[in-house]
Amino acid sequence: MDLNDFSHFAKKSETSERVGGINCISYTRVSSKEQEEGYSLETQRKAIEQHSQKNKLYIVATFGGTYESAKTDERKEFTKMISFARKSKEKISYILVYSVDRFSRSGANAIYIASELRKENIKILAVTQPADTGTASGKLQQNIQFIFSEYDNDLRKEKCVAGMKEKLQEGYWVTKAPLGYDQYTKHKTQYITVNEIGKKLRKAFLWRASENLTNIEILEKLHVMGVQISKQYLTEMFRNPFYCGILVHNFLNGKVVEGKHEKLISKEIFLQINKPTMHLPPIKHKTEFEDTPLKHFIKCGTCGTAFSGYVVKAKGLHYYKCNKNGCKCNRRVDDMHEIFLHLLSSYLIDEKYAEPIKDEFVRFVQSINQSNKDNQHTYKAQIQSVEKKIEAVEEKFVLGDIDKDLYEKFKLKFTHEKDQIEEKVENVHFDLSNLKDWVDSYFKLGANLSKIWTSSTYRAKAELQNLIFPEGILYDREKHYYRTPRINSVIRYMSDIAGSLGQEKSRLPNDYLGKSALVAGAGFEPTTFGL
Ligand SMILES: [Zn+2]
Q1: Which of 33, 97, 321, 402 has the fewest CB atoms within 10 Å around its CB?
Q2: What is the spatial distance between Cα 472 and Cα 190, in angstroms, rounded to a whole number?
Q3: How far is the CA of 455 from the centre of ligand 1 (A)?
Q4: pLDDT tens, 361-387?
Q5: Cβ atoms of residues 25 and 63 within 8 Å
Q6: Domains and CATH numbers, the chain
Q7: What's the CA-to-centroid distance between 486 and ligand 1, angstroms?
Q8: Cα dist. 438→277, 285, 433 in Å?
Q9: Ligand 1 centroid vs 309 CA: distance in angstroms?
Q10: What are 264-311's pLDDT values in tens digits?
Q11: Which of 445, 413, 429 is nearest to 369 (CA)?
Q12: Residue 280, CB half-sphere, CA atoms under 13 Å: how many?
């Protein structure tokens, strides 16, 4: 009996075959920016090949090698490379790169990935910076190189921001142009021109400016022309001065610059659409919409479908109806308007409380704003922490510590978390410079709600409705009244103050100061009314 009889009991790690192996993969990487600076994939490839020949290594596969500009593409290729290294049937012993910064620029993160790979006996070998990572000092050397590459990267980012600022000042756009534009560079000059979609979007601007159409009508028309965008996108588009040739950007620090790109519309049209207080142009002819201003806005309380409007010409009567087949809910327009006016009147503010309400409200907003400012730092820290969690999950997935299901589950969870915090950050911006005017106009609106709605044109009615009830209203057919999923927080707040003033004149409702959620709601700027 000799020890060989026991050999099939011997233990062996799955990756031990990699030790001293000759199989390797080649990974090259260059960003488009570096390409301009004279870094070359060719140089990297040649150096790696020479090294592999000299040291009798066999290149099983090559990764990277394309000029990837987008960060995500680069990441994808990197992930593919790591997963190949770990899973390939030919046992991979080395990942060959030109220099350590070609492997990754992420410093500590790269050190972590490298150490995890080392546990599986895969080493990163930078052919121009040889370090035997099998030894402690070699490992240290490579880690220091990783850290320096991150530092270099930060320096480059700083330079890059300075370059972008300069370009913006000169009138060149530095990121992706908005929908409706083609963007390309020729002989080092940037060109941004209106494309086919842009020509259709131009019509949307004109409809909005001269034909008095609502956003919903415009969306419907664009849809027919094959352009599908969301209501939110359309609103943002109308407010984006890029379309009339103007550049605004965080990097410009409040400055406005004339852009060098093609204009989609004139500045006059843009300003007409975005007038701070819009005086509505006179209606030339009565449209079919005039008689049914609550169309699309009322939703069926039974099934949630938006109501449409129709007319019975023989009787000369207009109706609203639930658009869902078989729901059979139609009501006369007069009846529906009557209860809508009743709803509006319940938020009416009494003029005699004007001063105390305005004072109280200004104080309220100021205090909210201060506490929001204090929270900014907390939010930023929260975002950073979630971003770290996302990165960690990605790493774990790349390294095979977790499977795809788990990865996707957590990625989704953390991304959702991040979105929520970012939403909060966006909501805390509130400009106090013209708070007084703003409160005045809100008060005026609140004190005249039903009057304003009744005397407004179709278009202004629609805007007023959406301002006060941002999610529309639900019609309860049994009780014949409207349910309101969301009410403009300012209007509600003002009418609450008025209510409590009415009950007990000496007491101001200080208990509202805690309700910062009020201000986090949408609909905070009463901009588009001819008040
Ligand atoms: Zn219905």
Answers
A1: 33
A2: 44
A3: 29
A4: 777 777 766 766 777 778 788 888 898
A5: yes
A6: 14-157 (3.40.50.1390), 181-273 (3.90.1750.20), 298-344 (no CATH), 351-518 (no CATH)
A7: 20
A8: 11, 33, 10
A9: 14
A10: 999 989 988 887 654 444 444 455 567 889 998 999 999 989 999 888
A11: 429
A12: 21
Model-wide pTM > 0.70: no
Q: At what angle do helices 71-87 and 354-398 cross, to 10 degrees?
A: 30
Nearest alpha-carbon partner for 261 in 161, 332, 205, 194: 194
Buried b or exposed e, range 77-104, using 16+ CB within 10 angstroms: bbeebbebbbeeeebbbbbbbbebbbbb
Residue 35 token pair:
């390409």
Taking Cα atoms as reference points, which of 300, 285, 291 lies closest to residue 319?
Answer: 291
What would the two tokens of residue 93 be?
């012993």
Q: How far apart are CA 62 and CA 65, in angstroms?
A: 8
**What is the spatial distance between Cα 97 and Cα 81, in angstroms, rounded to a whole number?**
12
Query: Tokens 């629609």 label which residue?
Result: 462
- β 317-322/246-247 pair status: unpaired
Ligand 1 center–CA 331 separation, angstroms: 12
Share of the chain above pLDDT 90, in %: 18
**From ligand 1's centre to the CA of 326, what distance in Å?**
8
Cα angle value 338/344/349 (rounded, 5°) = 140
Instruction: Kindly give the distance from the C-alpha atom of residue 325 to the centroid of ligand 1, in angstroms, as a whole number.
Output: 8
- Helix ranges (H only) for 346-482 are 354-398, 404-427, 435-447, 449-455, 458-468
